[in-house]
């Protein structure tokens, strides 16, 4: 199902069958995007929004020297640019990090969706959740040390994947390179290698062959000052203990 992960595991927000059907009927196309492909360019007019079915994508801004700064990571179930229905064009680029399967929803088909009060509220929740994660991203990069940034990011990713049934709370797949992780956390690749080694030696987590194992998630969360309240997880997705 195209929408099975959209808003899954969130507090008080659950799509009913009619709402899922309405969104899926609004989809004009499902396509596969190769890894490392720019999907949306800043400043270019948009006529649709994108829902991720499988894979990972990122938001980023490129400086005048051509160096990019990641400002967001998106996972299955994310409506990555729903806000482009109002903010068009976007002020940032969006690209795939892994191969991704996506659903295209034209803006003219979003209009009747948001006109439905309850479904419109749930779509609005999705954009507000994105904003909450952006604030956490700013906090992570602005206030935490390098190890804390990595710890926070891994805890957040685990929580988001738990919400959509892609982490069991102990391990999850993260098909990103060490360079990707370094860019996400604002450190060099060499420094990232040291941090991952230190987290492993401290018995907090490991990252091997694109799999993260959360050995002491409680201590990892403490190291990264991570509190999942901003993700609005329901009881089924929230970590026990």
Notes on the structure:
This protein is an alpha+beta fold. It has two domains: 17-135, Jelly Rolls (Sandwich); 145-231, Winged helix-like DNA-binding domain superfamily/Winged helix DNA-binding domain (Arc Repressor Mutant, subunit A, Orthogonal Bundle), CATH 1.10.10.10. The protein contains seven helices and ten strands. The chain has helices at 17-26, 107-114, 117-143, 146-163, 178-185, 189-201, 217-223, and strands at residues 29-33, 38-40, 48-54, 57-62, 68-74, 93-96, 100-106, 171-173, 205-208, 211-214. The strands form three sheets. Strands 2-6-4-5 form a four-stranded antiparallel β-sheet. A three-stranded antiparallel β-sheet has the order 1-7-3. β4 and β5 form a beta hairpin. The longest helix has 27 residues, at 117-143. The mean pLDDT is 95.
Structural domain tally: 2
Average of per-residue pLDDT values: 95
CATH class annotation of the largest domain: Mainly Beta
Low-confidence stretches: none
Q: Summarize the main sheet.
A: 4 strands, antiparallel
Terminal Cα span = 32 Å
- Strand order in the sheet with the most strands: 2-6-4-5
The CATH architecture name of the largest domain reads: Sandwich
Helix content: 25-40%
Shape: globular
CATH superfamily of the largest domain: Jelly Rolls
Q: Any idea what the radius of gyration is? A: 18 Å
CATH topology descriptor of the largest domain: Jelly Rolls
Number of strands: 10
Number of helical stretches of at least 4 residues? 7
Provide the structure class. alpha+beta
